[in-house]
Structure to design on (317 residues):
């Protein structure tokens, strides 16, 4: 990989990807939007990175009042054993993380994609960002939508949120997909944490800045978002192995072989979680999803990833 990271820190095999290091903070919710929904076609750019064209799905979007913020969500597709909840990575909008794979998932199941507090179109709180509070927001969103059980997938920081949903709200989660994140500081190389300590707004990839401003044209909110995401990572709180062991639902752990979290950590998680499976694909952070900063944007890995995830979600109990 060749993506830039703060301080130009490099691992032996790849750069530390800026998409993981940096977060973006969305502006406050649009006044009067709580509970409001619209129906529209998914924009063309949601499938622009695909190796083969994917027909857009019908989308319902809205804002849910949860825990003092207005949380943005989208609903695509229909069917499946349970809705699939998609939680984007730090500093990212729904489209930045899932723009290539979301239409693929929505061909066969209902997909609910949501933006975390301070990200994209979701409102902000004047308190530090934590994975636990974001997990409670996801639970409140599902309650708002009348959903009692869902499959939950998170990427990067979104995976940390997804893990906390499974720990704090176990009855809500039927199956868990934990992609490219870690539960302990030791799950990422020391260089990552050193780089995080020196992170600056100027190092945030322009593509992520542009994606944020495309849905929330407030530069001040963008900077606030960034600062809160970085503060959360600088004060990263380990999830205890005992808490991880409480996740007994079927879980698919996904990582790239040149990812930020180490492959050793991914293997460790499979030993802690009684019903966990592991998939490691060639590539760096987010390449297997075709996310916005992926080096191999024309790769077929995203289609392969979706096929494996769908087989995992649809396999017998």
């Amino acid at each position: 990989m060749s993506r830039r990271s703060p301080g130009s820190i490099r691992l032996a095999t790849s750069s530390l990807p800026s998409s993981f290091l940096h977060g973006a903070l969305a502006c406050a919710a649009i006044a009067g939007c709580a509970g409001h929904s619209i129906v529209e076609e998914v924009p063309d750019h949601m499938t622009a990175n695909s190796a083969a064209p994917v027909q857009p799905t019908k989308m319902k979007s809205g804002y849910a009042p949860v825990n003092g913020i207005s949380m943005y969500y989208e609903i695509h597709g229909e069917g499946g054993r349970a809705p699939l909840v998609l939680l984007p990575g730090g500093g990212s909008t729904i489209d930045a993380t899932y723009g290539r794979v979301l239409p693929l998932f929505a061909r066969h199941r209902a997909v609910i994609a949501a933006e975390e507090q301070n990200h994209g179109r979701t409102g902000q709180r004047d308190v530090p960002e934590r994975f636990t509070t974001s997990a409670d927001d996801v639970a409140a969103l599902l309650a708002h939508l009348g959903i009692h059980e869902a499959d939950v997938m998170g990427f990067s920081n979104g995976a940390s949120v997804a893990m906390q949903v499974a720990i704090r709200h176990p009855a809500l989660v039927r199956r868990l997909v934990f992609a490219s994140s870690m539960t302990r500081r030791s799950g990422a190389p020391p260089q990552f944490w050193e780089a995080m300590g020196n992170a600056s707004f100027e190092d945030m990839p322009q593509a992520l800045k542009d994606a944020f401003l495309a849905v929330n044209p407030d530069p001040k909110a963008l900077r606030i978002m960034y600062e809160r995401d970085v503060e959360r990572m600088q004060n990263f709180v380990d999830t205890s192995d005992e808490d991880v062991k409480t996740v007994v639902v079927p879980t698919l752990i996904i990582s790239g072989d040149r990812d930020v979290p180490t492959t050793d950590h991914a293997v460790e998680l499979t030993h802690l979680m009684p019903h966990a499976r592991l998939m490691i694909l060639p590539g760096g952070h987010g390449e297997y999803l075709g996310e916005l900063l992926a080096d191999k944007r024309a790769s077929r890995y995203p289609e392969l990833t979706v096929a494996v995830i769908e087989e995992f979600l649809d396999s017998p109990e």
Notes: Residues 6-314 form a domain with the Rossmann fold fold (CATH 3.40.50.1820). The first strand starts at residue 37 and ends at 41.
